[in-house]
């Protein structure tokens, strides 16, 4: 669903390495949507003072120091959700019914916040559009 190209930005041949990787990927006859959505990651930015990527949409990280990793995780999540047609939703469920169990089977439950005062929970899920449609049909309230 996603290609992440991590480059050692301090390597003297980093531009040539990128060109080589892109050439190999193109020769693999991958779908154009996959090639167009490559996440370009410049690693080892801690070794270059005040590094700013000159390439459009490149993310600057330092794996050693953790710099930029949160932004990278967010970008990966966003691209994967787009590629798979899924979305992140927060759904209020009645804990006395079967909704929570259904969500655990049909979606990816990320977080459950129980509201004991009214017997409900806020459930944060990753779910496909079709599964969410089924959920709404099964549990219209």
From TrEMBL:
One GO CC term on file: cytoplasm
Listed Gene3D superfamilies: P-loop containing nucleotide triphosphate hydrolases
Gene Ontology MF terms in the entry: GTP binding; ribosome binding
Domain Hflx-type G: 1-84
Superkingdom of origin organism: Eukaryota
Any Pfam family hit: HflX_C
Coiled-coil residue windows: none
Protein name, per record: GTPB6 protein
């Amino acid at each position: 669903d996603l290609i992440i190209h991590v480059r050692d930005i301090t390597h003297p041949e980093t531009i040539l390495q990128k060109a080589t990787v892109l050439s190999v990927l193109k020769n693999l006859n991958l779908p154009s949507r996959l090639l167009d959505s490559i996440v370009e990651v410049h690693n080892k930015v801690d070794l270059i003072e005040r590094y700013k990527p000159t390439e459009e949409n490149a993310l600057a990280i330092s794996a050693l120091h953790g710099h930029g990793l949160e932004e990278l995780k967010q970008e990966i999540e966003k691209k994967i959700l787009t590629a798979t047609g899924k979305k992140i939703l927060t759904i209020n469920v009645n804990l006395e019914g079967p909704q929570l169990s259904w969500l655990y089977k049909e979606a990816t439950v990320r977080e459950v916040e129980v509201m004991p005062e009214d017997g409900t929970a806020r459930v944060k899920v990753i779910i496909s559009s079709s599964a969410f449609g089924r959920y709404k049909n099964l549990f219209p309230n």
